[in-house]
Amino acid sequence: MLVSDAMIRNVISIRSDANARKLLDIFLIHRIDALPVIDRNDKLIGYVPLEHLAEKLMPRFKEIIKDFACLQDYGQLEKIFEVQWHLVEEESNILVSDCMINNVVAVRDSESLISAAALMVTHNLRRLPVID
User: Fold this and answer.
1) Quick check: 100 and 47 in contact, CB under 8 A?
2) How would you list the strands of the sheet with 14-15, edge to edge?
3) pLDDT by residue for the chain (132 residues), tens digit each?
4) From residue 3, how far is each of 11, 107, 114, 125, 128 by CA, in Å?
5) Is the model's pTM score more than 0.85?
6) CATH architecture designation of domain 11-102
7) Which residues 6+ apart lie within 8 Å of 115 measured at CB?
8) What is the DSSP string of the chain?
9) Which residues pair with 15 in a beta bridge?
10) Partner of 125 for a Cys bridge, out of 83, 99, 118, 120, CB 3.0 to 4.6 A?
């Protein structure tokens, strides 16, 4: 079985020059916890986990919540950000590039699922971008 047989095809992404407000809106509207970051040519250049945005907007938040997986209910997450919403407005100069991870481990859609799974285990990943 190939990666192309199991991958999600309609992936939401964001550009590195988008601001924190747009990024947060996408996280909350689509109820996702990470976004691939693309350049102007739609090439993958990184990804942003939700916790990196939260750390930028609310640095002490990571001390309280060690693992965002505990926030299964995005309603809870919205309430947390609502309390801090003024920070998002004040920090609208924070860009995706300020909170993205540049070192992206990715896989081609023609690779086997076993090799993709091995990459995920080796690099301790919960998600693996597919590039063509």
Assistant:
1) yes
2) 14-15, 34-38, 44-49
3) 999 999 999 999 999 999 888 888 898 888 888 999 999 999 999 999 888 887 787 766 666 665 555 555 555 565 656 555 555 555 568 899 999 999 999 999 999 999 999 999 999 998 899 997
4) 15, 8, 9, 16, 10
5) no
6) Roll (3.10)
7) 107
8) -BHHHH--SS---EETTSBHHHHHHHHHHHT-SEEEEE-TTS-EEEEEEHHHHHHHH-TTHHHH-S-GGG---HHHHHHHHHHTHHHHHHTTT-BHHHH-B-----EETTSBHHHHHHHHHHTT-S---EE-
9) 38
10) 120
Q: Which amino acid does the sequence have at 4? A: S
Position 124, amino acid: N
* 7, two tokens: 């991958």
Rounded (10°) angle between helices 20-30 and 74-83: 150
Query: Which structure tokens are listed for 132?
Result: 């063509």
C-alpha to C-alpha distance for 71 and 77, rounded to whole angstroms: 7
Looking at the chain, how many residues does it have? 132
